[in-house]
Design brief:
The protein is mainly alpha-helical and 300 residues long. It has one domain.
């Protein structure tokens, strides 16, 4: 499972910047107040979508499934089979272990399918986040065109005669002295646009952090599933439950059974620390993304 790397943001298209700059009428207060509104909405929405897509319980559920697998395997104890002698009851002990294994095996098959589903969902989420990540960059570029155009227009306005800076309506917002200068109004609008832009840009590497947590964990989970498949096959053969060995008198090798069980438990418990660390890192990253979303929802 792989994710794309972090790429630097390119510069806004010069022709687009020029077109936006030429369309801005500084003598129209409504035009200033709505300047870049569509681009701002798209960027803000992309910030929300990325956070929503990042959120998942798949890794938490996968950790629980692994614990259930361990709980199904641990009680299967081949140690009693080592007893020898006329009254050891080896045949009965072997049959009881076979019965327990068959029941656990059915459970493990379902748990393996559940784990595979979580792994598949993590892959789909990585692909979806890649697409949303690229879409967000496109929206940021469009907003950049408005910011660059607006700043250029603002610089021109600051250098223009005072009478050219007055809003044509001659009206001021409540609590402001009249007349309101168009340059001040545009500067305030650009601050609003920049808030959305900053949040979106800061969110992009956080998305990659989440993906770089998910990808290796998905690989570890896949390895655990493979280990379960191998162990089920090994124990079926050792216990004489495979089609070619059914009905034959087979004395299970308790040493081989114990060794393969220990190997499986090691493989199942190996991802636990990585899962705990990954989930903690993921949680911290989600909190950072949530704070960025809040800055977009409630711009200063």
């Amino acid at each position: 499972m792989t994710v794309q790397g972090i790429a630097a943001m390119p510069a806004a298209d010069a022709s687009r910047v020029a077109a936006v700059k030429n369309s801005l009428n500084l003598r129209d207060g409504a035009d200033i107040d709505s300047f870049g509104e569509r681009a701002k909405r798209e960027v803000s929405a992309s910030v929300e979508r990325l956070l929503a897509e990042v959120r998942t319980r798949d890794l938490i559920e996968a950790r629980e499934i692994l614990r259930h697998v361990v709980e199904a395997v641990e009680p299967l104890d081949p140690t009693p089979l080592q007893a020898k002698g006329l009254f050891s009851g080896a045949k009965g002990k072997a049959e009881r272990l076979r019965t327990k294994f068959v029941a656990a095996d059915a459970s493990l098959e379902g748990l393996g399918e559940d784990l595979n589903e979580r792994i598949a969902r993590l892959q789909r989420k990585a692909d979806s986040l890649n697409a949303l990540h690229e879409q967000s960059k496109t929206f940021i570029l469009e907003l950049d065109a408005y910011l660059e155009a607006g700043r250029a227009r603002l610089a021109e306005a600051r250098a223009a005669p005072v009478q050219e800076l007055v809003d044509a309506s001659g009206e001021a917002a409540e609590g402001e002295p009249a007349p309101v200068k168009s340059a001040d109004r545009l500067e305030a609008r650009l601050r609003q646009l920049d808030i959305a832009r900053t949040a979106a840009v800061r969110q992009l590497p956080l998305v990659r952090v989440v993906q770089n947590v998910d990808a290796p964990l998905a690989d570890r989970l896949a390895n655990a599933v493979k280990a379960v498949v191998v162990w089920r096959k090994d124990w079926s053969e050792l216990l004489g439950l495979t089609p070619g060995r059914k009905g034959k008198r087979i004395r299970p090798d308790h040493v081989a059974l114990a060794e393969t069980k220990a190997k499986l438990l090691t493989a199942l418990k190996a991802p636990e620390a990585a899962l705990a660390e990954g989930l903690a890192r993921r949680s911290q990253t989600e909190e950072q993304m949530e704070r960025l979303v809040e800055t977009v929802r409630k711009p200063k």
